[in-house]
Design goal:
Number of domains: 2
Strand content: 35-45%
Number of strands: 22
Structural class: mainly beta
Largest sheet: 6 strands, antiparallel, barrel
Shape: globular
Number of helices: 2
Strand order of the largest sheet: 13-14-17-16-15-20
Length: 337
């Protein structure tokens, strides 16, 4: 039986492509370019479904009463804004390269290290495996999407095989950001120190300009709250303050910690999905009962709304070493039909 490759089974429109372009920061000469395919059909659908919505809506009573366009930010948190990065390093900040078993497994036949397979679900609480800590004071900021544009492909303008003329269709979405020579260069003080970048994720979330905290996990920056609540010992919690009733809605993901006593480590995962909540109501039904070990959580808790949404997550086939010797432009291409 012949092996069938993924490319033969899945049409091109289901694919994305991640590109890493290494440049000399002084001459801007391209040193190396790497490209890897990535299936991003779900991400493409999410992008289109939310981004085609105009940032304004028509208010028939707006303006002087005759109607006007007014701001509509209902879906702004769903639009891609960031390219989050994770790296392979130990508790001392030492790069581990492909020897990091969190990312790579050794093929016993070939002896080569291959990326682990990312499975659907919340294996990492919906975040990265080992996110690079945020520390803007040392030029390691949260990376924003710095450029968005479209590239064309060429398709027959007339009947295929009968007319030779073709037309360009702008159906390849490109988002990119650049890691400059002074960003992501390791935890040490020597210029040759480097990070071994192993994972890249396209994500959406609340709009952040500057991050003033040090050594922060990127996903913690996207939490809104805390909102005081009371846990019943079951899958229902109740918001304490009426003013918070409209802050959370059905479908939101929240982070929950017991007030003053609990820790994330005592829960299988501190993140929960809101299955049901009435508008302006205080009672929230979660996807499961909050537990610390074998005990249900009851009493005062704090909850945060999690606005981070990772649309596509990729472990690089070959780790990218980033030092002050070069800059890296990361491009993510999404192919539409």
């Amino acid at each position: 039986m012949n092996n069938i490759s993924v490319n033969e089974k899945v049409a091109r429109e289901y694919f994305g492509e991640i590109e890493l372009e290494f440049r000399d920061p002084k001459t801007q000469e391209i040193i190396e370019t790497r490209r890897e395919n990535n299936i991003v059909k779900i991400f493409a659908k999410e992008t289109m479904s939310h981004s085609v919505i105009h940032n304004k809506i028509w208010d028939p009573q707006g303006g002087t009463g005759g109607g006007a366009w007014v701001e509509n930010d209902s879906y702004d948190d769903f639009k891609i804004k960031y390219m989050l990065l994770g790296a392979s390093f130990d508790e001392n900040g030492v790069p581990l390269d492909a020897n990091d078993e969190r990312y790579y497994q050794r093929d016993e036949v070939t002896g080569l290290y291959k990326p682990i397979q990312l499975m659907p679900g919340a294996d990492y609480d919906g975040g990265l495996i080992n996110a690079i800590p945020i520390d803007e004071q040392n030029n390691r900021p949260l990376k924003k999407i710095e450029n968005i544009y479209w590239e064309p492909t060429y398709q027959p303008a007339g009947t295929p095989l009968l007319q030779p003329d073709v037309r360009a269709i702008n159906n390849v979405l490109v988002v990119e950001t650049t890691l400059t020579e002074d960003e992501y260069n390791g935890f040490g003080l020597v210029e040759s120190d480097h990070f071994t970048i192993t994972e890249v994720a396209l994500s959406a979330g609340i709009e952040l300009s500057s991050v003033t905290e040090c050594d922060v996990d990127p996903r913690d920056l996207f939490l809104e709250g805390p909102y005081a609540a009371n846990a019943s010992g079951g899958d229902v919690i109740s918001l304490v303050n009426a003013a918070d009733a409209d802050k959370l809605v059905k479908g939101d993901q929240i982070k929950l910690l017991p007030d003053g006593t609990g820790s994330e480590e005592e829960q299988v995962s501190p993140y929960y999905l809101i299955l049901d909540k009435q508008d302006s109501g205080s009672d929230i039904t979660l996807d499961r009962t909050p537990m610390e070990g074998s005990s249900a959580i009851a009493g005062d808790v704090n909850v945060w709304k999690d606005t981070l949404r990772i649309f596509s997550h990729r472990i690089l086939s070959t780790p990218a070493k980033k030092s002050s010797s070069f800059q890296i432009t990361i491009r993510w291409r999404i192919y539409f039909t």
